[in-house]
Amino acid sequence: MRMYTIATALALTACTAAFGQRAETPVLKTGTPPLQATVSSRDALIARAKSLELNTPYVPPPGDPLEHHTSGYGKIMCSAVFITGLDPDFAAENVGYFNSPYAERAKVGKPVIDRVHKAVHITLPNGGHCRWARA
After folding, report:
1. pTM score of the predicted model
2. Is the pLDDT of residue 55 over 60?
3. Is CB count within 10 Å lower at the N or C end of the chain?
4. Total domain count for the chain?
């Protein structure tokens, strides 16, 4: 059975390769616009999104942005260490920059990993607040 499956796969691969080389390239007729002149699907998607966009101003969430970034950093570290199993130093350097940019991470303390309680603690620069996340 296994040999039959392998033989069938090889035959299909050979047929696909043979027919794929014979494919003709499309020829534009005279009087038709070039392919670049037509609206791309990406442009159509963006135009549709803009037509559905609500006319509302951007209002950032209340609170200190550094606290928000630090909370995100703690959650990303918690998931990376306790769920994914990454090394904390590797995770701190390579994971979650969409949630907490490197410039914001540089302002806070190094994440402290509490393996007993499966938690991550990060101290803010003012020293009084500590952000943490638990798995």
Report:
1. 0.57
2. yes
3. N
4. 1
Residues in the chain: 135
Give residue 103's domain range: 65-134
Domain membership flag for residue 25: no
Strand 112-114 relative to strand 130-134, pairing: unpaired
- Residue 79: exposure state from Cβ atoms within 10 A (0-12, 13-18, ≥19): middle
Q: Kindly report, residue by residue over 70-101, the tens digit of the pLDDT.
A: 889 999 999 999 999 999 999 999 998 888 88
CB within 8 Å of 134: residues ≥ 6 apart: 78, 117, 118, 119, 120
Domain-embedded: residue 6: no
Pick from 73, 78, 134, 59: nearest CA to 104: 73
Q: Which residue has the tokens 């907490």?
A: 100
Amino acid (one-letter) located at 91: A
